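PROTEIN DESIGN WORKSHEET
SECTION A - STRUCTURE
LENGTH: 307
TOKENS:
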């Protein structure tokens, strides 16, 4: 079993509301993040992701449960391991009139990191060529990449990113996605918190999904989604093709302007249609996605709560 970089057991956080009531933000959360790759920490806004991250970083104290970073109990031993952790939880404060590079150089001096790491951090986040521009001229996506570069000055083994694509346009989202993918491939363990499940699926190797502060599912993305068992079939005569496929014992139904067939082996589709002289225009596997998986999880939870 891989070393666990992050581990929580029975983690719980309660808040007192203004009216004197009790709000539970995190409920008995067991989180396990092994070393290496990008681990998605997923759920809708208000599901407890940021609260959990703040507790891991010592910015909030849990009501109950235990937490470990690199095997060390936190917050008690947080000072011993925090140097190995980089985090972008809130928008960092950079001087708007200084260049991106100068901002990083001053930050490196402040934390005692060698300035030689600045150039490497700039290259890692793909800001080479724009590093001499003033920070105030940066797009939102560039500012977010500079924030990630700032965390890399510590040469962290763990990087925690809380909703790094919030407010970004499609180009900015793509840039952050590529940066995160590269970091995960370089050996850094990345905990990526997000509510944009379709986007995260493109970079995560594993994921933990929470809702209302509770653990809903956790594991390798491929294991969570399961095997692909559906295909999209496009033919000229959908009615005839649907009849042929159904008579062949296949589970088929109309799907947008095509037919959806639930079967693992696509040859069963092509064989059945060819035997009936029905010719395919298109045959495409329908990939499972995290968003659909998550919606099914939350729907099941609501049904359980209502029953």
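SECTION B - SEQUENCE
RESIDUE ASSIGNMENT:
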């Amino acid at each position: 079993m891989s070393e666990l970089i992050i581990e929580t057991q029975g983690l719980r956080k309660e808040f007192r509301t203004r009216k004197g009531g009790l709000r539970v933000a995190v409920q008995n959360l067991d989180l396990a993040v092994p070393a290496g790759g990008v681990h998605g920490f997923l759920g809708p806004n208000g599901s407890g992701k940021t609260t959990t991250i703040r507790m891991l970083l010592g910015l909030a104290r849990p009501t109950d449960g235990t937490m470990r970073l690199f095997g060390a109990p936190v917050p008690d031993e947080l000072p011993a391991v925090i140097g190995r952790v980089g985090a972008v939880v809130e928008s960092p404060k950079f001087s708007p009139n200084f260049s991106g590079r100068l901002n990083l150089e001053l930050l490196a001096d402040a934390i005692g990191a060698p300035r030689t790491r600045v150039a490497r951090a700039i290259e890692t986040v793909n800001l080479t060529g724009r590093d001499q521009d003033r920070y105030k001229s940066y797009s939102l996506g560039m500012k977010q990449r500079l924030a990630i570069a700032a965390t890399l000055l510590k040469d962290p083994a763990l990087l925690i990113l809380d909703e790094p694509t919030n407010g970004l346009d499609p180009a900015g989202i793509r840039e952050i996605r590529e940066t995160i993918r590269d970091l995960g491939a370089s050996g850094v363990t990345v905990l990526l918190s997000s509510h944009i499940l379709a986007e995260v699926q493109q970079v995560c190797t594993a994921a933990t999904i929470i809702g209302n502060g509770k653990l809903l599912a956790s594991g390798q993305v491929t294991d969570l989604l399961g095997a692909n068992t559906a295909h999209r079939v496009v033919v000229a005569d959908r009615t005839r093709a649907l009849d042929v496929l159904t008579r062949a014992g296949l589970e088929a139904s109309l799907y947008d302007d095509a037919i959806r067939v639930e079967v693992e082996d696509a040859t069963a589709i092509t064989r059945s249609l060819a035997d009936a002289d029905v010719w395919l225009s298109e045959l495409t596997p329908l990939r499972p996605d995290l968003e659909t998986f998550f919606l099914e999880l939350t729907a099941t939870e609501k049904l359980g709560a209502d029953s």
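SECTION C - NOTES
The radius of gyration is 24 Å.
Confidence is low (pLDDT under 50) at residues 303-307.
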